[in-house]
Design a protein that fits this description.
- The structure is a homodimer.
- Chain A is α+β, with helices and mostly antiparallel strands.
- The first copy, chain A, has a single domain, classed as Winged helix-like DNA-binding domain superfamily/Winged helix DNA-binding domain (Arc Repressor Mutant, subunit A), CATH 1.10.10.
- Chain A is built from 7 helices and 3 strands.
- A 3-stranded antiparallel β-sheet of chain A has the order 1-3-2.
- In chain A, a hairpin with a 2-residue loop joins strand 2 and strand 3.
- The longest helix of chain A has 13 residues.
- The two termini of chain A are 22 Å apart.
- At the A-B interface, helix 1, helix 2, strand 2, strand 3 and helix 5 of A face helix 1, helix 2, strand 2, strand 3 and helix 5 of B.
- The structure holds a DNA duplex.
- Chains A, B: This is Transcriptional regulator.
DNA sequence: GGGGAATATTCCTGTAAAGGAATATTTGGA
DNA sequence: TCCAAATATTCCTTTACAGGAATATTCCCC
C-alpha cells in the first residue's frame, strides 16, 4: 500500500489564486523582471505590484535579487515541482473513465455491510 | 515560437485553496463519499460540508450522484488534468538550476540598450 | 400521506485580504 | 550631503467568504 501522499502547501495555492499574482507568475515565466516592468506590463500601480510580489516572495514562489536600486523578481522552481508532485498523486483520478460512476457506486453498495 | 501557454482556471485554484476543501479532495481521492461521511471524517458540521461541496461542485472539481436520500460526491478528472497541463508548461522553470540567477541578470543587462 | 434521515439553503457575524493614496526607505550619482 | 529614481510600507475602506445556528427540502419507508 505505502499510501503516503504528498500534501500540497495551501499557501502556495492561495498565493496563486489571485488574478494579478497569477498574471505576474505568467509574466515571470520568461525570465526575471523588475517591479516597474511588472507594474507597467500589467497596468498595476507600483505599490500593488510590490505588495503582490511580497506575497509571492513570502510564499517562496518568487526570488529577489537586488541590482542597484532595482529589484529583479524571478520564479523559483520548488513550488512548481511540489505542485507537479501533488497533481501526479492524483494520477488514478486523472486516468479515470468518465462514465463508470455507477459501477463505482455499485461496488460501494456491496461493501456496505460493515 | 508557438508560445501558446495553457492558462489555469483561477476558480479551480481558489476552490482548492481552502483547508477544509483541500481535505475533502484528499478524502475523495480514494473514491466517492456521502456528505455525512465527509462531515464525520473531517469533524465538520453537515451544513459546512454541504457548502464546501457546493463550491467544489460549482467549480467542476466534484461530481454528484444521488442515491436514495444520500448524495455521493466524487472527484472529476478534468481539473486535475488541467492543473497538470498548466504545471507542465513551467517545465523550463522547474528544471532550472538554482545558482545561475546572476548569469541570467548578466544576460539581461546586455540587452538593456533598446 | 406522515415521519424521520440525509442534505441543502438562508441569515447573520466576523475577519482576512485587495485596492487607493500617501509616505517612508534605499541607492547611486553629482 | 542632497536629489531623484525605484521600491517598500502604512493606513484606510470595502468586499468576499467562512463558520454558526436555524430552517427548508428531498426522499424513502411504514
Amino acid at each position: 500500500m505505502s499510501g503516503m501522499n504528498p500534501d500540497m502547501d495551501m499557501a502556495t495555492l492561495s498565493a496563486l489564486a489571485e488574478p494579478n499574482r497569477m498574471k505576474i507568475v505568467e509574466l515571470l515565466r520568461d525570465g526575471p523582471l523588475t517591479v516597474g516592468e511588472i507594474a507597467d506590463q500589467l497596468g498595476l500601480r507600483q505599490p500593488q505590484a510590490s505588495k503582490h510580489l511580497k506575497v509571492l516572495s513570502d510564499n517562496g514562489i518568487v526570488d529577489v535579487k537586488a541590482e542597484a536600486n532595482r529589484r529583479f523578481y524571478k520564479l523559483r522552481p520548488e513550488p512548481f515541482r511540489a505542485l507537479d508532485t501533488w497533481v501526479k498523486s492524483f494520477q488514478r483520478v486523472m486516468e479515470e473513465r468518465f462514465d463508470n460512476l455507477e459501477d463505482y457506486l455499485r461496488e460501494l453498495q456491496d461493501k456496505e455491510n460493515d
